[in-house]
Amino acid sequence: MPPNLISKLLQKCTSATIDEQENLQKTRQMVEHQIPLEIIKQPVHNSELKVFMKSSSYSNDELTKLFDLLTKKNSLSFSKIPGRNLFMAAVQDDATAYTGYENVWVRDNIHIAHAHYVQGDVETTALNVKEIGSFWLKYDNRWIDCIKVLNRYTDPHLAEDVMRRPHIRFNGTELTENTQHWSHAQNDAIGYWLWLSSKLCREGHLDYDILSKVAVFIALYFKKIDFCNDKDNGHWEEARKVEASSVGAATAGLRELELLLNENEKFQEIFEKNFNNFCKEHNLHEDFKVGKELVSNLKEEGLKKMNSILPFESRDAGAEREADGALLFLIYPLQIITGEMAQIVVDNVVRDLLGEHGIRRYKGDSYWMADYKAVFSEENRTGNFSEDIGQRNKHLKFGQEAQWCMFDAIVSCHYSLKLQDLQKRGASEAELLACKDSQINYFNRALGQITGEDCSFGPWHCPESYYIENGRVGKYVVNDITPLLWSQANLISAFLLIKKIL
Questions:
Q1: Do 63 and 377 contact (CB within 8 A), yes or no?
Q2: Mean of the pLDDT values across residues 172-177?
Q3: Which distant-in-sequence residues (6+ apart) come within 8 Å of 455 by Cβ?
Q4: Which residues contact 144 (CB under 8 A, 6 or more apart)?
Q5: Rounded Cα gap, residues 327 and 331, in angstroms
Q6: Distance CA 42, CA 265 (A)
Q7: pLDDT digits (tens, 9 = 90+) for 431-451
Q8: How many CB atoms lie within 10 A of CB 296?
Q9: How far apart are CA 368 and CA 429, in angstroms?
């Protein structure tokens, strides 16, 4: 929609009656969903950073200077947990220790490890996935009990007891499980680990030992829980439902494992040996014959299920959801959805979730909604609401959801991938220019979210999200999870993909 038409619409709103204004406002909201993103401007919070930003395109030298600046300011640094090759979710101080973000989340760590991978630091990436695998092998009883006993029909209690599943959030310092009740039914997190580990092994950066053992657990576990129809807690660790983002992440992991098995005879030999020994030890041979065949079948089932849900996140009755930021990760880094479907997912996210300060996770998200710190005590702010999300949702004022800082960078990555494809196909200059404009626009939005001097946590941080504080609608500040390492990781990916296709 051209800017002059928007102006006319706004002018008409000012001279209309109250009833007409309400109707026109609704029309304006509908129109804005069709406005090209370049018309929707986001504030740049860091004035010093703004000097280095370009409105349309960057040269390689300009990107290098920008990256070096953020590196110098520690905006893109990742502090490991002392003595480990693991990362806490967010940097903590005494005031924010209550959040629990000093723990290790598998999903966050894989995104952070992947950011090291794209920078060429495959050693850190490999050490990270090995440490997570070591944790899962330390508590192999979680996998074994689920594989041997878990059956949603004959043992529904075990099927619903998320604490008896493999843990995806744990104490990284001690490499031990936490006793706090948590929503560990997160098939996406397991899929992420399998995806990156198999990718590293395919490229010769990871030895076979840990992956060949954990991959057997994962394949049998996904089969036993029927991952395509398993209602898990997903990326946002909330109410359980069948989600495309979880099915897709698990399928991406299975696809990468299948490629590894097909390409590497030595790994296949070790994997099948471990698979057969496990099945023999636990009397599973009647159900499972060949490990490679199981992996392939699971991948095909996952693709079919994911495609039946897309472009929605969930089609569960009573929990249907179309746009969800988690779907973006199926585009990048997983690249399990591409082409037209990837564009539809991006368009839906922009249409429904784009905000001035970031992108909402989904409509009706009450996590860090307006006045969150006033509504919830420190003890409850980052607690587990997965079994009673209504207790949190009842405080939400629709349209006042937090706006997150991890998504714009991924949308930029989408347009970088699309630009590569258009260039290969010999697309027109108009198509290439439009795609590049979107690539840079979302990249700039991600840069604009970096904190400035007015931030209570200080400048040069990549926050988790911006939320409305003290009832001042329109006054957005960063939440207490600042900086968030996942946001930093995504920004690095956006940087390097732009540089790759210059």
A1: no
A2: 97
A3: 45, 461, 477, 478, 482
A4: 217, 282
A5: 7
A6: 51
A7: 999 999 999 999 999 999 999
A8: 17
A9: 42
Structure tokens at 350: 């922009």
Please tell me the predicted confidence (pLDDT) of residue 155: 59
Residue type, 426: G
Contact 202, 266 (CB under 8 A): no
Q: What does pTM read for this prediction?
A: 0.90
Please state, in angstroms and rounded to a whole number, the distance separating the CA atoms of residues 220 and 146: 9
Instruction: Report, as an integer, the average pLDDT of 412-422.
Output: 98
Helix or strand holding residue 278 (H, E): helix 265-281
Strands (E) in 397-492, as ranges, are: 403-404, 465-468, 476-478
pLDDT digits (tens, 9 = 90+) for 62-100: 999 999 999 999 999 998 999 999 999 998 787 788 888
For residue 359, give the DSSP letter: B
Q: What percent of the chain has pLDDT over 90?
A: 75
120 and 203 Cβ atoms separated by less than 8 Å: no
* DSSP three-state, residue 414: helix
- 370, 473 contact by CB (below 8 A): yes
